Amino acid sequence: MGEDIRLEIRSDARLLGAIRSLVRCYVGSCGFREERVDEVVLAVDEACANAIRHAYGGRKDRKLELTLRDEEDWLTIAVRDSGRPAPAERVQRKRLGARKAETLSPGGLGVQFMYRVFDEVAFEPGVRRGNRVTMRLKCPKGR
Amino acid sequence: MAMDIEMRDDDAAVVIKVTGEVDLYTSPKLRTAVLDALKKQATVGVDLSGVGYMDSSGVATLVEGLKSATDAKKDFVVVAPSSSVLKVLQLSRLDKVFAIRESL
Protein backbone atom coordinates (compact mmCIF):
# COMPACT_ATOMS: atom_id res chain seq x y z
CA MET A 1 0.00 0.00 0.00
CA GLY A 2 2.91 2.35 0.60
CA GLU A 3 2.83 5.64 2.37
CA ASP A 4 -0.34 7.17 3.73
CA ILE A 5 1.06 10.68 3.78
CA ARG A 6 4.05 12.28 2.07
CA LEU A 7 4.52 15.90 2.94
CA GLU A 8 6.99 18.52 1.76
CA ILE A 9 7.61 21.21 4.36
CA ARG A 10 9.69 24.38 4.20
CA SER A 11 12.52 24.36 6.77
CA ASP A 12 10.94 27.01 8.98
CA ALA A 13 10.60 26.36 12.73
CA ARG A 14 7.33 28.30 12.67
CA LEU A 15 5.78 25.33 10.86
CA LEU A 16 6.59 22.82 13.61
CA GLY A 17 3.23 23.45 15.30
CA ALA A 18 1.39 22.53 12.09
CA ILE A 19 3.51 19.40 11.69
CA ARG A 20 2.68 18.36 15.26
CA SER A 21 -1.05 18.79 14.64
CA LEU A 22 -0.91 16.56 11.57
CA VAL A 23 1.20 13.88 13.29
CA ARG A 24 -1.10 13.96 16.34
CA CYS A 25 -4.16 13.37 14.18
CA TYR A 26 -2.55 10.63 12.13
CA VAL A 27 -1.00 8.68 15.00
CA GLY A 28 -4.24 8.97 16.99
CA SER A 29 -6.06 7.31 14.10
CA CYS A 30 -3.63 4.35 14.25
CA GLY A 31 -5.03 3.28 17.65
CA PHE A 32 -2.29 4.41 20.02
CA ARG A 33 -3.28 5.62 23.46
CA GLU A 34 -2.99 9.31 24.16
CA GLU A 35 0.25 9.15 26.14
CA ARG A 36 1.94 7.26 23.31
CA VAL A 37 0.61 9.77 20.78
CA ASP A 38 2.18 12.61 22.80
CA GLU A 39 5.55 10.85 22.77
CA VAL A 40 5.44 10.18 19.03
CA VAL A 41 4.50 13.82 18.35
CA LEU A 42 7.48 14.93 20.45
CA ALA A 43 9.94 12.59 18.71
CA VAL A 44 8.81 13.60 15.21
CA ASP A 45 8.98 17.29 16.17
CA GLU A 46 12.55 16.68 17.35
CA ALA A 47 13.50 14.98 14.06
CA CYS A 48 12.15 17.93 12.05
CA ALA A 49 13.68 20.51 14.41
CA ASN A 50 17.07 18.78 14.09
CA ALA A 51 16.92 18.97 10.32
CA ILE A 52 16.05 22.68 10.46
CA ARG A 53 18.63 23.54 13.08
CA HIS A 54 21.56 21.28 12.26
CA ALA A 55 21.25 20.06 8.67
CA TYR A 56 20.15 23.46 7.35
CA GLY A 57 21.76 25.64 10.02
CA GLY A 58 18.51 27.53 10.54
CA ARG A 59 17.95 28.36 6.84
CA LYS A 60 14.23 28.68 6.20
CA ASP A 61 14.19 28.21 2.43
CA ARG A 62 15.02 24.51 2.25
CA LYS A 63 12.76 21.49 2.18
CA LEU A 64 11.99 18.64 4.56
CA GLU A 65 10.07 15.56 3.61
CA LEU A 66 7.91 13.78 6.14
CA THR A 67 6.36 10.41 5.34
CA LEU A 68 3.91 8.45 7.46
CA ARG A 69 2.79 4.89 6.97
CA ASP A 70 0.93 2.27 8.96
CA GLU A 71 1.60 -1.14 7.52
CA GLU A 72 1.73 -4.71 8.82
CA ASP A 73 1.31 -3.53 12.39
CA TRP A 74 4.17 -1.08 12.26
CA LEU A 75 3.91 2.69 12.29
CA THR A 76 6.80 4.04 10.22
CA ILE A 77 7.68 7.73 10.14
CA ALA A 78 10.59 9.12 8.16
CA VAL A 79 12.08 12.61 7.92
CA ARG A 80 14.41 13.49 5.08
CA ASP A 81 16.45 16.59 4.42
CA SER A 82 19.08 17.56 1.87
CA GLY A 83 21.31 19.51 4.24
CA ARG A 84 24.57 18.80 6.01
CA PRO A 85 24.93 15.13 6.99
CA ALA A 86 24.89 14.61 10.75
CA PRO A 87 28.18 13.45 12.27
CA ALA A 88 27.81 9.86 13.54
CA GLU A 89 28.62 10.99 17.07
CA ARG A 90 25.60 13.31 17.15
CA VAL A 91 23.08 10.62 16.34
CA GLN A 92 24.34 7.87 18.64
CA ARG A 93 22.24 6.50 21.42
CA LYS A 94 23.48 7.75 24.78
CA ARG A 95 22.61 7.47 28.41
CA LEU A 96 20.77 10.46 29.74
CA GLY A 97 20.71 12.04 33.11
CA ALA A 98 22.58 14.32 35.42
CA ARG A 99 22.30 15.09 39.07
CA LYS A 100 24.02 18.43 39.24
CA ALA A 101 23.62 21.56 37.17
CA GLU A 102 27.38 21.80 36.52
CA THR A 103 27.47 18.55 34.59
CA LEU A 104 24.43 19.21 32.43
CA SER A 105 24.73 19.25 28.67
CA PRO A 106 21.40 19.55 26.92
CA GLY A 107 22.84 19.13 23.41
CA GLY A 108 21.49 16.24 21.40
CA LEU A 109 18.57 15.63 23.73
CA GLY A 110 16.12 15.50 20.82
CA VAL A 111 17.92 12.53 19.25
CA GLN A 112 17.74 10.66 22.55
CA PHE A 113 13.98 11.32 22.76
CA MET A 114 13.64 9.68 19.35
CA TYR A 115 15.50 6.57 20.57
CA ARG A 116 13.45 6.40 23.74
CA VAL A 117 10.05 6.74 22.09
CA PHE A 118 10.38 4.46 19.06
CA ASP A 119 11.15 0.73 18.91
CA GLU A 120 13.55 1.21 16.01
CA VAL A 121 15.42 4.31 14.89
CA ALA A 122 17.77 4.36 11.90
CA PHE A 123 19.84 7.39 10.95
CA GLU A 124 21.17 7.40 7.42
CA PRO A 125 23.34 10.44 6.84
CA GLY A 126 24.25 10.96 3.19
CA VAL A 127 27.86 10.97 2.05
CA ARG A 128 27.94 14.58 0.85
CA ARG A 129 24.51 15.85 1.68
CA GLY A 130 21.22 14.89 3.16
CA ASN A 131 19.94 12.83 6.07
CA ARG A 132 17.17 10.38 6.49
CA VAL A 133 15.88 9.17 9.82
CA THR A 134 13.36 6.35 9.93
CA MET A 135 11.47 5.68 13.15
CA ARG A 136 9.30 2.62 13.70
CA LEU A 137 6.84 1.68 16.39
CA LYS A 138 4.86 -1.53 16.82
CA CYS A 139 1.15 -0.78 16.65
CA PRO A 140 -1.14 -1.78 19.53
CA LYS A 141 -2.70 -5.23 19.32
CA GLY A 142 -6.40 -5.66 18.65
CA ARG A 143 -6.94 -2.16 17.38
CA MET B 1 -0.28 27.84 18.61
CA ALA B 2 2.32 30.29 19.70
CA MET B 3 3.75 31.11 23.11
CA ASP B 4 3.05 34.02 25.45
CA ILE B 5 5.18 35.32 28.26
CA GLU B 6 4.05 37.39 31.22
CA MET B 7 6.51 38.76 33.78
CA ARG B 8 5.72 39.33 37.43
CA ASP B 9 8.44 41.22 39.22
CA ASP B 10 8.21 41.79 42.95
CA ASP B 11 10.75 42.40 45.71
CA ALA B 12 11.67 38.79 46.12
CA ALA B 13 11.61 37.26 42.68
CA VAL B 14 10.80 37.46 39.01
CA VAL B 15 8.26 34.95 37.86
CA ILE B 16 8.00 34.31 34.12
CA LYS B 17 4.63 32.83 33.28
CA VAL B 18 4.68 30.91 30.03
CA THR B 19 1.53 29.96 28.13
CA GLY B 20 1.26 27.92 24.95
CA GLU B 21 3.85 25.76 23.23
CA VAL B 22 7.62 25.87 23.73
CA ASP B 23 9.52 24.60 20.70
CA LEU B 24 12.42 25.52 18.42
CA TYR B 25 10.41 28.49 17.13
CA THR B 26 9.28 29.95 20.47
CA SER B 27 12.06 28.96 22.90
CA PRO B 28 14.47 31.81 21.94
CA LYS B 29 11.93 34.28 23.36
CA LEU B 30 11.81 32.33 26.64
CA ARG B 31 15.60 32.16 26.72
CA THR B 32 15.88 35.95 26.46
CA ALA B 33 13.28 36.42 29.20
CA VAL B 34 15.06 33.98 31.54
CA LEU B 35 18.52 35.47 31.04
CA ASP B 36 17.18 39.05 31.44
CA ALA B 37 15.35 38.11 34.62
CA LEU B 38 18.49 36.52 36.06
CA LYS B 39 20.31 39.85 35.63
CA LYS B 40 17.66 41.62 37.71
CA GLN B 41 16.79 39.30 40.57
CA ALA B 42 18.36 36.70 42.82
CA THR B 43 15.42 34.34 42.36
CA VAL B 44 13.82 33.55 39.04
CA GLY B 45 10.84 31.27 38.61
CA VAL B 46 9.46 29.94 35.35
CA ASP B 47 5.77 29.13 35.70
CA LEU B 48 5.01 26.33 33.25
CA SER B 49 1.47 25.53 34.37
CA GLY B 50 0.05 26.87 31.10
CA VAL B 51 2.41 25.03 28.77
CA GLY B 52 0.68 22.35 26.73
CA TYR B 53 3.76 21.27 24.84
CA MET B 54 7.50 21.51 25.34
CA ASP B 55 10.30 19.94 23.34
CA SER B 56 14.06 19.56 23.91
CA SER B 57 14.73 23.19 23.00
CA GLY B 58 12.54 24.17 25.96
CA VAL B 59 14.43 21.75 28.20
CA ALA B 60 17.72 23.20 26.91
CA THR B 61 16.46 26.70 27.75
CA LEU B 62 15.65 25.64 31.31
CA VAL B 63 19.06 23.96 31.62
CA GLU B 64 20.75 27.14 30.43
CA GLY B 65 18.77 29.16 32.96
CA LEU B 66 19.73 26.79 35.76
CA LYS B 67 23.40 26.87 34.78
CA SER B 68 23.49 30.67 34.55
CA ALA B 69 21.74 30.94 37.91
CA THR B 70 24.13 28.47 39.53
CA ASP B 71 27.16 30.34 38.13
CA ALA B 72 25.79 33.63 39.49
CA LYS B 73 24.81 32.04 42.83
CA LYS B 74 21.16 32.75 42.17
CA ASP B 75 18.05 30.59 42.43
CA PHE B 76 16.25 29.17 39.45
CA VAL B 77 12.90 27.51 40.11
CA VAL B 78 10.52 25.63 37.85
CA VAL B 79 7.02 26.52 39.03
CA ALA B 80 3.94 24.31 38.68
CA PRO B 81 4.99 22.39 35.57
CA SER B 82 2.06 20.99 33.58
CA SER B 83 1.87 17.22 33.09
CA SER B 84 3.32 17.45 29.58
CA VAL B 85 6.28 19.51 30.83
CA LEU B 86 6.90 17.04 33.66
CA LYS B 87 6.86 14.18 31.18
CA VAL B 88 9.48 15.78 28.98
CA LEU B 89 11.67 16.50 32.01
CA GLN B 90 11.31 12.85 33.04
CA LEU B 91 12.11 11.67 29.53
CA SER B 92 15.25 13.84 29.72
CA ARG B 93 16.08 12.31 33.11
CA LEU B 94 16.38 15.86 34.40
CA ASP B 95 13.36 16.05 36.67
CA LYS B 96 15.60 15.64 39.73
CA VAL B 97 18.00 18.39 38.70
CA PHE B 98 15.53 21.28 38.83
CA ALA B 99 14.03 22.82 41.91
CA ILE B 100 10.34 22.30 41.25
CA ARG B 101 7.75 24.13 43.36
CA GLU B 102 4.00 24.44 43.18
CA SER B 103 4.11 28.21 43.66
CA LEU B 104 6.52 31.09 44.08
Structural account:
The complex is a heterodimer of chains A (143) and B (104). Chain A is built from three helices and five strands. Chain A is of the alpha+beta class and 143 residues long. In chain A, helix 1 (16-29) runs antiparallel to helix 2. Chain A is globular and about 40 Å long. Chain B has helices at residues 27-40, 56-71, 83-91, and strands at 3-9, 14-22, 43-54, 75-79, 99-101. In chain B, helix 2 (56-71) links the parallel strand 3 (43-54) and strand 4 (75-79). In chain B, helix 1 (27-40) packs parallel to helix 2 (56-71). Chain B starts with a strand and ends with a strand. The A-B interface holds A 13-14, 16-17, 20, 38-39, 41-42, 45-46, 49, 52-53, 96-102, 104, 106-107, 109-110, 112-113, 116 and B 1-2, 21, 23-25, 53, 55-57, 59-60, 63-64, 66-67, 70, 84, 87-88, 91-94, 96-97.
Give a concise summary:
Chain A contains three helices and five strands. Chain A is α+β, with helices and mostly antiparallel strands.
Write the layout of secondary structure elements.
The complex is a heterodimer of chains A (143) and B (104).
Chain A: E1 5-10, H1 16-29, H2 34-55, E2 63-71, E3 74-81, H3 109-117, E4 120-125, E5 131-138
Antiparallel strand pairs in A: 1-2, 2-3, 3-5, 4-5
Helix pairs in contact in A: 1-2, 2-3
Chain B: E1 3-9, E2 14-22, H1 27-40, E3 43-54, H2 56-71, E4 75-79, H3 83-91, E5 99-101
Parallel strand pairs in B: 2-3, 3-4, 4-5
Antiparallel strand pairs in B: 1-2
Largest sheet of chain A: 5 strands, antiparallel
Most extensive protein-chain contact, per-chain counts: A-B, 29 and 26 residues
Percentage of residues in DSSP E strands of chain A: 25-35%
- Straight-line N-to-C gap of chain A: 19 Å
Low-confidence stretches of chain B: none
Q: Give the strand content of chain B.
A: 25-35%
Shape of chain B: globular
Q: Total number of β-strand segments of chain B?
A: 5
Please identify the structural class of chain B as seen in this structure: alpha/beta
User: Helices and strands of chain A, in N-to-C order?
Assistant: EHHEEHEE
Rg of chain B, nearest Å = 12 Å
